[in-house]
Design brief:
Elements: E1 3-12, E2 17-26, E3 29-34, E4 37-42, E5 50-53, H1 56-62, H2 71-83, H3 89-108, H4 114-117
Antiparallel strand pairs: 1-2, 2-3, 3-4, 4-5
Length: 120
């Protein structure tokens, strides 16, 4: 459980295909990377993780992906649960894929009438 890298395929309406988002998990950090963009959460005892780098929502929105407000917290929860030994490497990969699938469904089903196409 020292370190694991998980690759998630996230649908990008901007490009019309799935992009790879890489999540590198260790006991002390969680790094999410897509291309040249990245964000990092650092573990802090008895505190919420501290995020640095580009905000995750900005990375996603660059690809015309508009996640629910809870999305980052869900990733944190999975990481902290894995970090605490409650999820195996296989289990966290599965749970994060479930989260990616949910985001893909939301993204693929956003409003697509002419009115909304110009907005997002």
């Amino acid at each position: 459980m020292d370190e694991i890298t998980i690759e998630l395929r996230i649908y990008s309406p901007r490009w019309g295909h799935e992009d790879t988002y890489s999540l590198e998990l260790s006991r002390d950090t969680l790094v999410i990377t897509q291309g040249a963009r990245s964000t990092k959460a650092t573990y802090r005892e008895n505190l919420d993780p501290e995020w640095s780098g580009e905000p995750l929502v900005d990375i996603l929105q660059n690809d015309s992906i508009y996640p629910p407000a809870i999305f980052q917290r869900l990733i944190e929860h999975a990481w902290l649960t894995w970090r605490g030994g409650e999820l195996s490497n296989e289990a966290i990969e599965e749970e994060l894929q479930v989260l990616a699938n949910w985001l893909n469904e939301i993204t693929k089903n956003k409003p697509s009438t002419d009115f909304w196409k110009g907005y997002f």
